[in-house]
Write a structure and sequence with these properties.
5-stranded antiparallel beta sheet; rod-shaped; Immunoglobulin-like; about 120 residues; mainly beta
Length: about 120
C-alpha cells in the first residue's frame, strides 16, 4: 500500500487465532507522513548575459517538475515558469538590472505536493 506525502492516516490491527477466528481490533493509531517534497538547494546563476541567464539548482528526488519565478530585485510582479530539469534559461531581461529568482519542486506521488519556495537567489 502506497502512502501519500503530508497526509494523515489511522490504522487498527488484529490477529487471528490458531482456530482461524479473528481477535479484537487494537486501539486506533493515528500518524502523519512527512512532506518529503523539499525545496531545491544550491541555486546558482550561470551563462549570464545582458538580457538572459541560466538558473541552476540541485535536483531533488521524486520530482515531477519544477516551478520557477523571477522578478526585478526588491519588488514587482513575479514572472512564472516551469522546468522538467534542474535548470531554466530566462531571457528578455533588462540590461544592468538585478533580479531575484526562486524555484520549488512539484513532487510525486499523486496527489502532488509542492515544496516551499527556495530562498531567493539573485542574478
Amino acid at each position: 500500500m502506497g502512502l501519500t506525502n503530508a497526509s494523515d492516516y489511522e490504522i487498527e490491527v488484529r490477529g487471528f487465532c490458531s482456530s482461524g477466528y479473528p481477535g479484537p481490533w487494537s486501539t486506533t493509531y493515528i500518524f502523519s507522513t512527512d512532506n518529503s517534497c523539499t525545496s531545491p538547494q544550491n541555486l546558482i546563476s550561470s551563462n549570464v548575459t545582458s538580457t538572459s541567464a541560466q538558473l541552476n539548482w540541485t535536483a531533488q528526488s521524486n520530482v515531477l517538475y519544477y516551478q520557477t519565478r523571477y522578478r526585478v530585485q526588491g519588488g514587482g510582479s513575479w514572472t512564472n515558469g516551469t522546468s522538467n530539469t534542474n535548470s531554466k534559461v530566462i531571457s528578455g531581461l533588462q540590461s544592468s538590472t538585478s533580479y531575484d529568482w526562486q524555484v520549488r519542486a512539484v513532487c510525486l506521488p499523486s496527489p502532488y505536493s509542492t515544496s516551499s519556495w527556495s530562498i531567493p537567489a539573485d542574478r
